[in-house]
Design goal:
Blueprint (H helix, E strand, L loop, with lengths): L1 E4 L3 H14 L11 H7 L10 E10 L2 E11 H7 L3 E9 L2 H17 L4 E4 L1 E2 L5 E2 L1 E2 L17 H8 L3 E12 L4 H15 L2 E5 L5 H16 L10 H12 L7 E6 L2 E10 L2 H4 L10 H6 L1 H4 L2 E9 L8 H15 L4 E8 L3 H9 L3 E12 L1
Parallel strand pairs: 4-5, 13-14
Antiparallel strand pairs: 1-2, 2-3, 3-4, 5-15, 6-7, 8-15, 9-14, 9-15, 10-11, 11-12, 12-13
Helix pairs in contact: 4-5, 6-12
Length: 367
């Protein structure tokens, strides 16, 4: 077993291609677009303005059997007063390759003076985070990670322990709980004159500024949260604009002032699953048919600014998203992820009739 750093374009191509070879036969795996994966590791990615990443390949007699990224995010450490390195983009054929890869990350982190390694983060908490520890027969929703059942076991063997769980909740838009949610939302709106309106893409720049302000205001006290830089936020907005359905992206307003946000995304993974990571020669056809293929959505952003929490505005936003989703033909949706100790949000989502069905776990090891 040999673990070595990625040093060339050919190495990077092998790094990107590995999961397509490892997971090709797994019905739960969704192949990401290769062009999107290449962009993640481009030096033009604004993440690298505040972070350093070293990619590693594990090889066995010339065959690539694993990969991992060692990540030093200075912005995270400055924000939280931590002294951490992260690992991400982890893939391993077996336990031997997994342990060798993690040892390489740990050595790299020690050389940089870091006191612990946390992960997975791909490459940060603002992206796909955690290893799935249950519900392995379910494909991931858009922008959520996926892994085989063995990966958490490999971490345990390497001495990593749980640092935080992240919950995913499943909504069935046709469940009996929807009528109960409607009554709860109506009760809140009788008490407070909160109004819900959709995002207006014709005013994209102005709406984007509101999203950024609400997102930072609602999440700034969350465990592990690091604000997007302006360049990162702009890059994310360009990406999401390609798939967003403005009918299921809404603001909550009180006296004309935006106080909450719910942004649902059509589950483009239902299309990507048919494309094998390529737009040509046939992937483009599936993209053109995406309205016929997609019948579910993910709610990655649901938040209310601090001064208006515990008033039930989250229920109003969820109800409006479900109402609009049903009208647009979506049959189900996932709300993810929610910190395990965010009791107010988890209780609100449960009250809305969702089922907690999947858990992602972040692990950490002291060096």
């Amino acid at each position: 077993m040999n673990v070595r750093p990625v040093v060339s374009r050919r190495d990077l191509a092998r790094f990107i291609e590995l999961p397509y070879a490892l997971h090709r036969g797994d019905p739960s795996w969704v192949p990401p677009l290769r062009l999107t994966e290449r962009a993640r590791f481009s030096r033009k990615n604004p993440f690298f303005e505040h972070a350093t990443m070293q990619l590693f390949l594990a090889e066995d007699r010339g065959r690539t059997v694993g990969r991992v990224a060692a990540i030093d995010d200075r912005l995270h450490n400055d924000t939280h007063g931590d002294n951490l390195a992260f690992f991400g983009f982890f893939e391993a054929l077996d336990e031997t390759s997994a342990l060798a890869l993690l040892a390489a990350v740990e050595a790299w982190a020690r050389a940089r003076g870091r006191a612990a390694v946390r992960g997975p983060a791909n490459p940060s908490m603002n992206d796909g985070s955690g290893f799935q520890i249950d519900a392995f027969g379910t494909p991931p929703y858009v922008m959520m990670p996926w892994n085989p059942p063995a990966y958490p076991r490999y971490l345990a063997r390497a001495g990593y322990t749980k640092v935080k769980d992240l919950y995913a909740w499943l909504f069935d838009h046709h469940s009996a709980a929807v009528s109960r949610l409607e009554r709860l939302a109506a009760r809140v709106q009788r008490r407070y004159p909160v109004r819900v309106r959709p995002v207006d893409l014709k005013r994209f720049e102005a709406e984007l500024a509101i999203v950024e302000r609400l997102y930072n205001g609602a999440w700034e006290e969350n465990w592990g949260f690091v604000r997007y830089t302006e360049a990162e936020f702009r890059a994310l907005a360009r990406e999401l604009r390609l798939i967003i359905d403005p009918e299921i992206a809404v603001f909550a307003e009180l006296a004309g002032e935006p106080v909450g946000l719910a942004l649902a995304l059509p589950d483009i993974n239902q299309v990507l699953k048919k494309m094998n990571g390529r737009i040509v020669p046939f992937g483009f056809v599936h993209l053109l048919r995406r309205r016929q293929l997609i019948d579910q959505a993910r709610l990655p952003i649901l938040g209310v600014v601090k001064e208006h929490r515990h008033k039930g505005f989250e229920l109003v936003l969820i109800h409006e998203i479900i109402r609009r989703s049903r009208a647009r033909g979506y049959r189900r949706g996932e709300c993810s992820w929610i910190l395990e100790d965010n009791e107010a949000m988890n209780k609100g989502i449960a009250a809305a009739g969702a089922e907690r069905y999947k858990t992602y776990r972040l692990f950490q090891k002291a060096l």
